[in-house]
# Entry
Amino acid sequence: ETGVTQSPTHLIKTRGQQVTLRCSSQSGHNTVSWYQQALGQGPQFIFQYYREEENGRGNFPPRFSGLQFPNYSSELNVNALELDDSALYLCASSLGHPLGVNYGYTFGSGTRLTVV
Amino acid sequence: AQKVTQAQTEISVVEKEDVTLDCVYETRDTTYYLFWYKQPPSGELVFLIRRNSFDEQNEISGRYSWNFQKSTSSFNFTITASQVVDSAVYFCALSKYGNNRLAFGKGNQVVVIP
# Structure
């Protein structure tokens, strides 16, 4: 059983550019969530996808957007990058409806994004 | 709103000592879930335990134990006889039933000195 895989592992972008981060969920998991973790902080919820539909969003501006594909993999897109977007971006997958019982998430190792 | 407070930022212990990590949470919901995750230097969050709000039994798993006290809104985590491999950041997290997004604390950096 493979876990959650994310790519790339590290990325350096210039302010104002756009970036796409990718995530393959654990086999059989149909819900994918994205979290942003700034240095020295706990992860902050960005949004969640269930069966290709966004199902909940945290306090992030619209330039943060996402997609979920039929195979449950997902992308996180960030437009007009700002210096404060520098962080570890974590993808997490779980089984079941996001409004039901929370059995916990399997997290990937993250993508370290640096904006210069 | 859900809130999790982990007051201690960095804790250093000598190998074989016990270490307890405090987690205090705030929620208006009657049904909720509490979690602990471990984050080693590699970055991924490793699931340790999930507890729902109706189950106040303490739990032990090997050298790990958890003390859930609803009366004080705390869910503390103890590592007994710490080992160097326990060095990591540990996060406490909370979600309410019907909304699976996790609210994390700021984490406890545990450094086990050999």
The radius of gyration of chain B is 14 Å.
